[in-house]
Amino acid sequence: MKTLRIKVAALGIAIATTGLLNTGCNSFTKTQKGAAIGAGAGGVVGAFIGKAAGNTALGAVIGGAVGGTAGALIGRKMDKQAAEIQQTVPGATVVRQGEGIIVKFDSGILFDVDKTGLKPAAKSNLENLAASLSKNPETNILIVGHTDDTGTDQHNMDLSIRRAEAVKSYIVAGGVSGSRMTTQGRGESEPIGDNTTADGRAQNRRVEIAIVANDQMKAQAKQGQ
């Protein structure tokens, strides 16, 4: 619980920092706000915020932001892809964040307890996600596995890595280039729920996928394309 409280507090600081960047921008669209946030909190600062908040996927999105007009153009593309994923991948939680997208799957949808074999419903969801990723090739993808705190630290780290790799392998089989994807396992180190409760542990067993602009999309956005 102490670790969870610390991370919640850190996330609050991150949100507060973002809020300061939004001061005076209440009339902005979501995409414009994302551009402003990217301009103020991109790069190293954005990565630090994500790390402090205990969320590797969030850090990848904020840390990869370019901001400004280019960020707004990237944001519009991400708006469209996020809407598509929301419609076609019913088992996922889709969050538009800054200049990227975070797609979260509860592990109960993907895997049986303590297993790495994908369930049939998971395969259907990942096939649909792969289709969207294939149609939007100018992005990089980070796949992050997470567990609850049941079991040893090493077991949980290994399990989270193998689950992230299982998701990557299936998306690659769906036609997405493996060179676009990176995997990480975070074990039990980034909880979003209370590990002392069954519901909290279920929340913590998840896979998060961060979708961010690649260098080509960023270059095109800077050119106003």
TrEMBL record:
Residues 178-201 are annotated as: Disordered. CDD domains: OmpA_C-like. It comes from the Bacteria. Keywords: Cell outer membrane, Membrane. It is found in: Cell outer membrane. GO terms for cellular component: cell outer membrane. Residues 98-215 form the OmpA-like domain. It comes from Mucilaginibacter mali. It holds the Pfam family OmpA. Its main location: membrane. PROSITE patterns: OMPA_2. This is OmpA family protein.
